[in-house]
Structures are given as structure tokens and as C-alpha cells.
């Protein structure tokens, strides 16, 4: 079985698909109704998808600009390597919070929110940040250029 590495454009496409799915899960107060199972909260899956979207986007950026494969780096490490994007302190703090919120995968809850509504607002902010980061990508990686 051969191993193939994705191109930056392919990574961006996959990242964007993750972000669209997360945005869809956040509709209707981040809840879906499944017959026979009731109401399902979709905040954790949306966080998971957005973490992956940012991670893949930053990997694509670094691969495009520096031709380095950073497949084993986490989001914070990728963020530090991507300082040329010019994210402001608020954006960096949002991504650090996303990284802490994502810790649920390891069985950790940092209890960042007083209530579900705060997490829902945070998720909306993360979606907006993802859209802004898309505009900061090199022209060749932007959707309109392709």
C-alpha cells in the first residue's frame, strides 16, 4: 500500500468541508432530532470538525509556503509556525481556547464555559475566524483563485 501526501489545495478542500459540516451542525441551536433517540447536542462534534479544519488549513499554508510536512504537529504548534499570517491576539486566543475545548478527546474538560450558550457563541466566533483565515491564505490557496 502506497502512501500519498495531500497537496495544499487538497488539504484546504478537506478543511473547508469540515468547516461547512460544523456550520451545518450549529444550525437550530446546535441540536438535531433523531427519531427514537430524541434531541442530540452537536456542539462537541462541531468543535471537533472546526479543530480539524484549522489544523488542515494551517498545514496547507505551511506546506505551500515552506514545503514542509507538519503532519504530526498539533494546532498550537502549527499556529506558532504560521505567525506570518498576522493573526491578532484575539484570534490567537480563540484558537487556544479551541484547542482546550478539543481536549474532550483526551477525557479532559477545562470548564471554559458557564453555560451552553457561551459555548454556542464561541463556536460562531470560531466559524467567523475560519472565514477570515481563508482570506489570509496565499492567493493560490483561496477558493476564488482556483
From TrEMBL:
InterPro entries from the UniProt entry: HEPN_dom
Domain HEPN: 44-129
Family matches, as Gene3D superfamilies: Nucleotidyltransferases domain 2
Pfam families, A to Z: HEPN (PF05168)
Protein name: HEPN domain-containing protein
Top-level taxon of the source organism: Bacteria
